[in-house]
């Protein structure tokens, strides 16, 4: 029986291994992590991550051919294929600070594999890592090999949170990069055989190691670039009276452009986009490609501009001051259908409003108070370390309360900011909300989810990203 072990039971490792176990009943899959709490949660009815469809998959295989354990060394030592899916934060100090990936956790995982292995292994890079990481890992393993043969593969993950299970069931493609030697090709074939249980052969692409590693960074950079492009357009739409949704629809009809990833928003978030682009920028700079580096850096700059612009709209609309005013924040996760808050635009928007002395009442259907307080008090990039290495008990951010209901959050508020596109925000009773708010009552829709006309009829002053401006907002400049 083939044995797979995955180091790191996070957003990538957990769902990916659960689907491999489901689709390959003859393979034994162990997911291991140093976090006892995380493993306990994977073994309970309350999984550590919220992902539609994941519960059912885990329930079907857990205890049969899918196991979650903290006994990292035992499972690594017994595995034929070891996936590594550990944290890869952005460095906060030293060489490459603010850009380069911190490979501390990767390196310690590689050294541990070398320490405990007694048989040949295929080691698969699953975390997002900079190009040429595989080569570095290969060096650590071969210099500590004790006669054991290691083959390193890069098998980047393309799942998106909120649709992870569907993405894993029907991937656009599976990418496997490996060495162009006979042993490398054999390892590629072994991993291909795993995916071939459910992925059509023509969708499994095999490349050299560096192409696979770079493709992951490039794919995320291209996706993020589409969002920054449409967000840049949204600012121009607001100035000219065009409607960004109409513009997106029109350009998306061009089959060369396509309709996806053209929704203007308050900004993109998530654990990958910013981190991967920073990595790409760093790699370009290291290779002397400063023009290429600044081209990609601009994608992040426009994202920051969009978040600032949103905060400025809120403040300038409300007579240039939000001091002491209650503002309801609807949605904190970086997108709908996930409880993940990593790099969510809500963090920067909330921090901006707090700087201007607003009182915030935050509601998200999947994010709890502890997480929100932690996010608002953490330093940039601290989020991407294992939880036991993050600041212990951050001091609670004053002027922020977290509630479990949109009506509670909006009661007596002066304004509402919609920061995540949760479906339930489309169907709230906005008349009831309006009646319970201070007047004039404002809605700032950072995700274009509300029906602007209906809300204006109720009496709200509405700002919706990239839409023709409410007459109220026209004379209030809000350029960041
Ligand atoms: C992304 C990639 O899509 C995935 O392939 C990769 O493996 C990991 O990174 P993820 O971060 O989970 O996935 O979510 P994604 O759906 O890409 O959304 C990222 C951010 O962009 C979210 O904040 C989302 O709200 C925002 N977004 C997305 C927009 O603002 N507009 C869009 O049109 C699409
Ligand atoms: P991703 O979104 O890439 O899955 P996460 O941060 O959700 O990232 O998951 C990474 C996981 O890796 C964390 O649960 C962390 O505890 C775990 N981890 C980090 N280093 C090690 C290690 N050396 N051995 C086992 N698990 C590790």
From TrEMBL:
InterPro entries in the record: 6-PGluconate_DH-like_C_sf, NAD(P)-bd_dom_sf, UDP-Glc/GDP-Man, UDP-Glc/GDP-Man_DH_C, UDP-Glc/GDP-Man_DH_C_sf, UDP-Glc/GDP-Man_DH_dimer, UDP-Glc/GDP-Man_DH_N, UDPglc_DH_euk
Organism of this sequence: Cinchona calisaya
Pathway(s) of this molecule: Nucleotide-sugar biosynthesis; UDP-alpha-D-glucuronate biosynthesis; UDP-alpha-D-glucuronate from UDP-alpha-D-glucose: step 1/1
Name of this protein: UDP-glucose 6-dehydrogenase
Keyword Oxidoreductase: yes
EC number: 1.1.1.22
Residues the record lists as binding NAD(+): 8-13, 33, 38, 86-90, 127-128, 161, 272-275, 342
Enzyme active site: 272
């Amino acid at each position: 029986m083939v044995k797979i072990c995955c180091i790191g039971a996070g957003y990538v490792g957990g769902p990916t291994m659960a689907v491999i176990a489901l689709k390959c009943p003859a393979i034994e899959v162990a997911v291991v992590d140093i976090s006892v709490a995380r493993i306990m949660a994977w073994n309970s009815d309350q999984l550590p991550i919220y992902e539609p469809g994941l519960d059912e998959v885990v329930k079907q295989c857990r205890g049969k051919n899918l196991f979650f354990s903290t006994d990292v060394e035992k499972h690594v030592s017994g595995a034929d294929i070891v996936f590594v899916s550990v944290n890869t934060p952005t460095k906060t100090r030293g060489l490459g600070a603010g850009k380069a990936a911190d490979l501390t956790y990767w390196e310690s995982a590689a050294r541990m594999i070398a320490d405990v292995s007694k048989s040949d292994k295929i080691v698969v890079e699953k975390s997002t890592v900079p190009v040429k990481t595989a080569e570095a890992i290969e060096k650590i393993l071969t210099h500590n090999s004790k006669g054991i043969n290691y083959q390193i593969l890069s098998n980047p993950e393309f799942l998106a949170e909120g649709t992870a299970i569907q993405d894993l069931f029907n991937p656009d493609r599976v990418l496997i990069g490996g060495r162009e030697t006979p042993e490398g090709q054999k390892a590629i074939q072994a991993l291909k055989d795993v995916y071939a249980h459910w992925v059509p052969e023509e969708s499994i692409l095999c490349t050299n190691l560096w192409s696979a590693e770079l493709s992951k960074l490039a794919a995320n950079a291209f996706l993020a670039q589409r969002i920054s492009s449409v967000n840049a357009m949204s600012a121009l739409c607001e100035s000219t009276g065009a409607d960004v949704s109409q513009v997106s629809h029109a350009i998306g009809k061009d089959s060369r452009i396509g309709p996806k990833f053209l929704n203007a928003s308050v900004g993109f978030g998530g654990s990958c986009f910013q981190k991967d682009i920073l990595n790409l920028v760093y790699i370009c700079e290291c290779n002397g490609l400063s023009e290429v580096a600044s081209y990609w850096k601009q994608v992040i700059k426009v994202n920051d501009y969009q978040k600032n612009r949103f905060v400025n709209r809120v403040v300038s609309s409300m007579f240039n001051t939000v001091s002491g005013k209650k503002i309801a924040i609807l949605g904190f996760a970086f997108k709908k259908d996930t409880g993940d808050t990593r790099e969510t635009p809500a963090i920067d928007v909330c921090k901006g409003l707090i700087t201007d002395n607003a009182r915030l009442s935050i509601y998200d259907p999947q994010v709890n108070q502890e997480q929100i307080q932690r996010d608002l008090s953490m330093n940039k990039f601290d989020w991407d370390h294992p939880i036991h290495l993050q600041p212990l008990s951050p001091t609670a951010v004053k002027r922020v309360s977290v509630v479990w209901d949109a009506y509670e959050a909006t009661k007596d508020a002066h304004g509402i900011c919609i920061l995540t596109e949760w479906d339930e925000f489309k169907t709230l009773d906005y008349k009831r909300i309006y009646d319970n708010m201070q007047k004039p009552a404002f809605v700032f829709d950072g995700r274009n989810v509300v029906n602007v006309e209906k809300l204006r009829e109720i009496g709200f002053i509405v700002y919706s990203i990239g839409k023709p401006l409410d007459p109220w907002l026209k004379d209030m400049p809000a350029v960041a």
